Amino acid sequence: MADRHNRDIDRQLAPAPEPLPVPCVDAHAHIEIVANTAVDSPEVKQVLDDAAKAGIDRIVQVGYSAEQSQWGVDLAALYENQVLAAVALHPNEAPVVADLEKDLAIIEKLAEHPRVRAIGETGLDYFRTPPELRPRQQESFKWHIELAKRSRKALVIHDRDSHDDVLSILEEVGAPEKTVFHCFSGDVEMAKKCIERGYILSFAGTVTFKNAPALREALSITPIDQILVETDAPFLAPMPHRGALNSPAQIATIVRAMADERNAELAEFATAISNNAERIFGSFAAGTSL
């Protein structure tokens, strides 16, 4: 995954959006890729300051490897009140790491930190993982599900070209009470299955893309208490800046598009999904825990 991330940071940052009228939460970002530097660097602080100016005052920093998950925990510890962390091995990472058991042990230890509020992103990705590596990926997914249940923390799922198997494994192992489909990519039928099972659908900048009417239809039928919003920064910048470097500030653009799609009042909608984030991940306030 490192090569892909390095390519992404060479792009131009999307322009600052019009601020939201009320504060909101970015439920999934990779700030270290946006800033490509240490947690205490001015560049990281600038990403967080830019987000706050746009009304995005809370961010969930999400893990994809043992090393990067540690970075996320350090960030959440440094920026109390503003950042929480999720830790995991990404489904593309798990089948290829040199010592899977060692890395999983690191994730399990990090999950004990009070600023870690979710296990993710884990799941399945059949787009990048060949068939011969998928059983190892599936076993990693099951391990992360069990960790989420043991630690009583939310599960954050990466699901690419693998809807049926993700749903099947969740049924087989038993989904945690709080299960989030990060960057939801399914159609209405997939959304209905998730809604029925009580899963949370997190919508990213893809919901603004011209070629994504199925996503907008899924958004329109999802109950308000099962919706989150995310950037997946630095990926998936929303229209009209598709292809630019994404950052948490762009939640303002995505939330506006989502509210328009649902014919919802902007401030009420932003407040509702912020409340969802705090219900799922807990309070961002310093000194709090689940």
From TrEMBL:
Swiss-Prot/TrEMBL keywords: Hydrolase, Metal-binding
InterPro entries: DNase_TatD-rel_CS (IPR018228), Metal_Hydrolase (IPR032466), TatD-like (IPR001130), TatD/YcfH-like (IPR015991)
A GO cellular component annotation in the UniProt record: cytosol
GO molecular function: DNA nuclease activity; hydrolase activity, acting on ester bonds; metal ion binding
Alphabetized PANTHER family for the sequence: D-AMINOACYL-TRNA DEACYLASE
Protein name (Swiss-Prot/TrEMBL): Unannotated protein
